[in-house]
Specification:
Distance between the termini: 5 Å
Protein name: Nitrate/nitrite transporter
Structural class: mainly alpha
Order of helices and strands: HHHHHHHHHHHHHHHHHH
CATH superfamily: MFS general substrate transporter like domains
Pfam family, one: MFS_1
Keywords: Cell membrane, Membrane, Nitrate assimilation, Transmembrane, Transmembrane helix, Transport
Family: Belongs to the major facilitator superfamily. Nitrate/nitrite porter (TC 2.A.1.8) family.
Number of domains: 1
Organism: Kushneria indalinina DSM 14324
Shape: globular
CATH class: Mainly Alpha
Strand content: under 5%
Oligomer: single chain
Number of helices: 18
CATH topology: Growth Hormone, Chain: A
C-alpha cells in the first residue's frame, strides 16, 4: 500500500500529530500487554504452592503462554492490512482483558493452563505496534521508530516483574491471604488493558491522512482485495526465504526474552534463595534494559544503513545476535549473585539490540506484504519461546543447563542473519514497484515524493 506524509523525524514531546500519537500509544499499549501476558510470572512461586504445580507443569504453562501467540501473530498483520491497526489494537486490548482478569478463577493445573493459553493472544500486540509505526514513519527513521516503540513496550516485561509483586504486597496488607491475593492482583492489569483499548480507539488513526476506511472511500487507498489481497500478501511473504531467516533470528532474540521473562524471578528465587520481591526486582532489570537497548539496536541499524545500505543493516543484526549468544552462555555459568546480575544486564543489552536490529530490516523485505512479513517474523519470536520452553520443562535439565544450551543455539542461528540478501545487488532503501528495493543509483520512474518511500 502507498502511504503518504510519513514523518521523517521523531519528536518525542509532540502529541498533536497523528504520527506521534500512534508512536506513544502503540508503545504504551504493548507495554501494558506485558502486565497481562506475564503478570503471573513473578508470582509463580505462590501459584506453584497454591495449585501444587510440578516443574513440568510450570514448563507447560510457560509454553502455553507463548504458543497461541504464534498463530495469532501470523494473521494479525493481515488483519491490520484489512481493517487498520486502530481497530485491530482496540479489539485485541479489550477482548484480551477478559482472560487476564479471569485467570484468578483457576483452581487446578488444567484451568490455569487454559487461562495462560488464552492470555497469550495479547502477545500479538507487538505486530500491531510495529505495523502502525512502519506506516507512520519514513525509511530514514523507521528503524528507530520501530525499535523505540517495541523496546518501550518490551520494557513492560521488566516493570511487570517489579510492580506485580508490589501490587500483591499491597493486597496482602489488607489482610487477604496469598491464595486469594494473587488472584485479585491479576484484576489490575486486566482493567488497565481495557482502558488502554478505549484510549487507542479515541486518540489514534490508521495512517497519517486518516483511517483506512476513510482513505478507501476517498480513493486514496486501494482496497487490499483488489490490488494485493490477503492471500497474495501472505503467499508472497511465505515464499521469501529471507522472511524465514528473520523468523529464526527473531526466535533467537525475542523468543529468548520471553523465556527469561517467564523463568527469571523463579530462577533467582530458587538458585540464590532470595525473597519473592527481591527476585522480582532483579529479574526486572532484564526487561528494564528495553528503556534504551532495543531503540539503540534500531538507531544503529539506521546508522549502518547510511554507511552500507541494507547490507549494513544485516551485518549489524548478525553482530548483535552473535554477542547475545556468547553473553547468554556466560550468564548461565555464573554462581555469584552480583556477577550473575551484571552478566544478565550485558546479555539483556544484546538481546534487545538484536530485536531492534531485526525490525530495522523487516520493513524493507516486501513493502506490499508488510503486515504478512511483520506477522511471520513476529511469530518467530514465539516459536523460539515455545522451543526454549521444552528445555525448561524437563526434570532432567536444570535451568542453568537449559540457558547454556540456549546460548549455543542463539550463536549458531546468528549466522542465518547473513542469508538475508537483496536481489540484484540492491543496497538502497527506495522500494521498487514490485515491493522490493532497487539499486541506490537507480531513480524510480517518475521519482517519488516524501512520505511515499515505504508502505
Amino acid at each position: 500500500m502507498e502511504i503518504r506524509n510519513k514523518a521523517t523525524r521523531i519528536r518525542l514531546l509532540e502529541f498533536k500529530t497523528p504520527q506521534m500519537r500512534a508512536f506513544h500509544l502503540s508503545w504504551f499499549a504493548f507495554h501494558v500487554c506485558f502486565f497481562g501476558w506475564f503478570g503471573i510470572a513473578p508470582m509463580m512461586a505462590i501459584v506453584r504452592d497454591d495449585l501444587n504445580l510440578t516443574k513440568t507443569q510450570i514448563g507447560n504453562t510457560m509454553i502455553a503462554s507463548v504458543a497461541v501467540t504464534v498463530v495469532v501473530r501470523l494473521f494479525i498483520g493481515l488483519l491490520c492490512d484489512r481493517i487498520g491497526p486502530r481497530r485491530t489494537y482496540t479489539w485485541l486490548l479489550c477482548l484480551g482483558a477478559l482472560p487476564v482478569m479471569s485467570i484468578g478463577l483457576a483452581d487446578s493445573f488444567e484451568s490455569f493452563l487454559l487461562a495462560r493459553l488464552a492470555i497469550g493472544a495479547i502477545g500479538a500486540s507487538f505486530v500491531i505496534t510495529q505495523y502502525h509505526t512502519s506506516i507512520m514513519f519514513a525509511p530514514n527513521v523507521v528503524g528507530t521508530a520501530n525499535a523505540a516503540t517495541a523496546g518501550w513496550g518490551n520494557l513492560g516485561g521488566g516493570t511487570t516483574q517489579i510492580l506485580m509483586p508490589l501490587v500483591l504486597s499491597a493486597i496482602l496488607m489488607l489482610g487477604v491471604s496469598e491464595t486469594l491475593g494473587w488472584r485479585l492482583a491479576m484484576v489490575v492489569p486486566g482493567v488497565v488493558l481495557f482502558l488502554t483499548g478505549l484510549a487507542y480507539w479515541h486518540f489514534t488513526q490508521d495512517a497519517p491522512e486518516g483511517n483506512f476506511n476513510d482513505l478507501r472511500r476517498r480513493g486514496e487507498l486501494v482496497e487490499a482485495k483488489n490490488e494485493y489481497g490477503a492471500r497474495a500478501s501472505f503467499g508472497s511473504a511465505i515464499r521469501d526465504i529471507r522472511v524465514w531467516a528473520l523468523f529464526l533470528v527473531y526466535g533467537a532474540c525475542f523468543g529468548v526474552e520471553l523465556t527469561i521473562n517467564n523463568i527469571a524471578a523463579l530462577y533467582y528465587f530458587d538458585n540464590f534463595e532470595l525473597s519473592l520481591a527481591t527476585a522480582g526486582l532483579i529479574a526486572g532489570l532484564f526487561g528494564l534494559m528495553n528503556l534504551f537497548a532495543r531503540a539503540l539496536g534500531g538507531f544503529f541499524s539506521d546508522r549502518f544503513a547510511r554507511l552500507g545500505g541494507l547490507k549494513g543493516r544485516v551485518r549489524w543484526l548478525f553482530l548483535t545476535l552473535l554477542c547475545e549468544g556468547i553473553a547468554l552462555m556466560l550468564f548461565s555459568q555464573m554462581q555469584v549473585l552480583g556477577i550473575a546480575i551484571v552478566t544478565m544486564v550485558v546479555f539483556s543489552l544484546f538481546v534487545q539490540m538484536a530485536e531492534g536490529a531485526t525490525y530495522g530490516v523487516v520493513p524493507f523485505i516486501n513493502r506490499r506484504a508488510l503486515g504478512a512479513v511483520a506477522g511471520i517474523v513476529g511469530a518467530g519470536g514465539n516459536v523460539g519461546a515455545v522451543a526454549a520452553g521444552f528445555l525448561f520443562r524437563s526434570e532432567s535439565i536444570s535451568y542453568q543447563q537449559g540457558l547454556f544450551f540456549l546460548g549455543i543455539t542463539v550463536t549458531l542461528i546468528a549466522f542465518a542473519a547473513l542469508s538475508v540478501r537483496f536481489p540484484g545487488g540492491a543496497t538502497s532503501e527506495v522500494p521498487a514497484a514490485a515491493g522490493g528495493v532497487v539499486d541506490r543509483h537507480q531513480k524510480p520512474a517518475g521519482g517519488y515524493r516524501s512520505g511515499e518511500q515505504m508502505g
